[in-house]
Amino acid sequence: xxxxxxxxCMVNVARFFIEFCMTESCGKCIPCRAGTAQMHTLLTRxxxxxxxxxxxxxxxxxxxxxxxxxxxxxxxxxxxxxxxTLKYFKHEYIDHIVHKRCPAGVCNMExxxxxxxxxxxxx
Length: 123
Ligand code: SF4
Prior knowledge:
Blueprint: H1 10-24, H2 30-47, H3 53-69, H4 73-77, H5 80-98, H6 118-122
Helix pairs in contact: 1-2, 1-5, 2-3, 3-5
Iron/sulfur cluster binds near residues 27, 28 and 70.
């Protein structure tokens, strides 16, 4: 059990767990290998104040795809922290994307990130 208070940013927590899964992925199947990396990119953009609502839609889509098509438990459960935080703390994602603020004061909203969003790359 992990206990957190309002000084923890739920978007950053989701990013932390996705980063763990991304680095632990063995790379055998594409949904887990590429999907966790793309989710990490999207969450990094959102944490840095560069996320868009399209990024959030893609994140939800990726969660479903990675969960349903990964070969083993690591990939199948990797999206869970994102899905849980989206279910209970979606307002924190919205704060980062729309209001460019981190309610917990954890995220550096001025942080530089890769110029292109995965949404732009896929378009
Ligand atoms: S889901 Fe399992 S088999 Fe597929 S890349 Fe991830 S760790 Fe490897």
